[in-house]
Amino acid sequence: MNAIGLKPVPGIRMQRVGLGSYSDGDHIICVMKKGFLRIKAMEGSHLRVNVNGKGETVGPNGSCLDLKLANEVQGKNGNPSSLSTVGNSTNVKWHECSVGKSERQSLINQKGCVVWITGLSGSGKSTVACALSQILCQRGKLSYILDGDNVRHGLNRDLSFKAEDRAENIRRVGEVAKLFADAGVICIACLISPYERDREACRAMLPKGDFIEVFMDVPLEICEARDPKGLYKLARDGKIKGFTGIDDPYERPQDSEIVLTCKVGDCASPYEMAEKVIRYLEAKGYLEA
Ligand SMILES: Nc1ncnc2c1ncn2[C@@H]1O[C@H](COP(=O)(O)OS(=O)(=O)O)[C@@H](OP(=O)(O)O)[C@H]1O
Ligand SMILES: Nc1ncnc2c1ncn2[C@@H]1O[C@H](COP(=O)(O)OP(=O)(O)O)[C@@H](O)[C@H]1O
């Protein structure tokens, strides 16, 4: 569920494209100033819209309808105040400010985005994240690393490694990364993030193109041979249960923007890997406002 209460149908990616506007790639969903949604449905499929907990379905064949927000209330001056229900938060309202992302980006001459590094434990996520941050720093670009291990020391200390807690871990880091990107920062998130759906949910939080997935394509045998924290050994000995790659799944990304491959006897250095990410950011215009 996103900020305006639209619930995407599985398989349809919802993408925020501007103030109160969303797109599934082919169609635009707008929130009008006075609290209306105008929805242009796609042909041959349904888009479900959840307004204040009441499910509405937009039918196939390009049907078009307006929905009045069920939870819109009249303000004191008679104007709708566009209060919304978001998750468990009732009667909340988005507050806009005239200083926006583009103003912040101009100040620091770069574009905010999220570089999401996924891979097995020991695949080199943190090392590449750090190398990338160093290169960006040398080039006068502002970045910030959200490392799964580190975030679990604070914000996410209440979460375990069972699937639903990993999902919540990814969701929270995705939301924080989104804020950094909105601040104009190049946010580097490095988490195992083993489930495709959790990664894709983070992608859907960001404007198109601003979520850049980097897959550390490093075989388990290399990660296990590195084992810098001794966790694989503990997992093999049965002393850690549900360890990713041993007795817990890792779903390989199928369509990452960047793949950093490491094979036995053929592995680029962390710096070379980070340079590949830099070239991508440069080509896509993220290193200038
Ligand atoms: N059961 C289990 N499975 C995987 N990893 C485990 C587990 N228990 C502890 N650790 C340590 O936690 C680090 C991964 O945390 P993440 O937040 O990135 O994981 S996840 O994205 O929620 O799956 C991971 O750090 P990295 O090695 O940096 O990936 C491990 O050191
Ligand atoms: N490209 C690389 N080539 C060789 N060793 C690497 C490379 N990247 C990382 N390492 C080493 O692998 C180990 C795990 O790296 P780390 O960044 O902690 O992985 P992760 O964050 O994915 O758990 C560390 O000892 C690190 O020095």
From TrEMBL:
A GO molecular-function descriptor: ATP binding
Domain of life assignment: Eukaryota
Catalytic reaction(s) noted: adenosine 5'-phosphosulfate + ATP = 3'-phosphoadenylyl sulfate + ADP + H(+)
Pathway(s) this gene product operates in, as recorded in its UniProt entry: Sulfur metabolism; hydrogen sulfide biosynthesis; sulfite from sulfate: step 2/3
Keywords for the protein's UniProt record, in alphabetical order: Amino-acid biosynthesis, ATP-binding, Cysteine biosynthesis, Kinase, Nucleotide-binding, Transferase
Gene3D superfamilies given in the database record: P-loop containing nucleotide triphosphate hydrolases (3.40.50.300)
Listed GO CC annotations: cytoplasm
Pfam families in alphabetical order: APS_kinase
BP GO annotations: cysteine biosynthetic process; sulfate assimilation
EC numbers for this chain: 2.7.1.25
APS kinase domain mapped to chain residues: 111-260
NCBIfam families linked: apsK (TIGR00455), PRK03846.1 (NF003013)
Matching HAMAP family: Adenylyl_sulf_kinase
Family listed: Belongs to the APS kinase family.
Function as written in the Swiss-Prot or TrEMBL entry: Catalyzes the synthesis of activated sulfate.
PANTHER family in the record: ADENYLYL-SULFATE KINASE 1, CHLOROPLASTIC (PTHR11055:SF63), BIFUNCTIONAL 3'-PHOSPHOADENOSINE 5'-PHOSPHOSULFATE SYNTHASE (PTHR11055)
Protein name in UniProt: Adenylyl-sulfate kinase
Organism whose genome encodes this protein: Erythroxylum novogranatense
